[in-house]
Amino acid sequence: MSTRTPDYGQAPSYMGEIPRYVSYTSPVSIAGARDGISASSAARLPLNLLALIIDCLDDVGDLARVTRTSRLLYYLTLPVLYQRVSLHSYGDIRYVNGRPEGFGGGSPLMMALNGLVTKSHAALVKEFRIWGQWKEVGLEEFRMGRVPDNSMMLNILLRACVDKMSKLQSFTWALDTKPLKTLYQGLAARDTLASLTIRFSSSRVPRPSVLVPPMANLRALKIEEYDPLCYPDDLSLLILQSRKLEDLRLHFSPRMRREAEPSLSLGTFFGRCAKAGYRPKLKHFALQNFIGANLDGIEHSYHPDTCQSVTMFDTFGGAGNSTPSAATVFLDSMWNDMSHDMSPHFRCMRGNEVNEKFTEMLKTFSGLERLYL
């Protein structure tokens, strides 16, 4: 008895079997040899070749136009069209030919989210990105201890989208507002998620800070514009319990180093790892714009036997360590006395700081293959 998994609309591979419902719409005759009918048009291409051509299309407009050409191309192209979804939110109303975008309906962002929630296309999405400006209404409610309705509804709507994205592998949040707990819970429940990028807000309006839950199969985590004065979320539990994490990149707000503000330490991110005696088995670790005292956390940021690549920009001394800033020199000098081994197993290093201490550290490396300065 056959146990072959049914096809539910995924893009057919040009190396695999063509789904039956696509074959019925193919311009290529499947009964020509049997019935004595010869192919009379050179435009009748095999489905495998069509799938290969569609796989080479990278422009969203081209994919959309091909989708509307015929029923066959609709079935072949639709999964590719929705494989990567990027939604841009605008803070102000934009006009096209004298009329606002979304005239007669909602904003393009809301209509796109509505389509993902109410139709079956969300099941085709593998990479999702939402970015731009979000117009928050009722900021005074944050100061009263309550989340404004429009911010809450945005997160609820995104949670509904994520719940339907059964193939989601990458999620990027780059709005100028923070994600809320309900969205994080939806991402944590998605066991296919392998990459997460969060860009935090630069607003200092009081808002909820969330303990981000662990994500079992997460392999890449990228944090941007982290500012301790802007109510960021707690990532320590996520780093501790996401045991498949291989790529961790922490980007801090340039304001911290510019204003010489040592308001956090690496223990904020790796404190739970230190208490549990665990070192993330990273392959790549990156820091940018970090400023803080050498108290704890650096020895628990990665496992020395697995980390192969490290990037340090404007960290432990700022850009151009040969001429340190007078405002940060006392904090930066604390990192010259790191007692633990920085791992001689690095294959690749990237940085913009060169000083005597750095060259002495390079002498201990045995497997370094690439150095970028």
Automatic annotation (TrEMBL):
Domain of life: Eukaryota
Name recorded for this polypeptide: F-box domain-containing protein
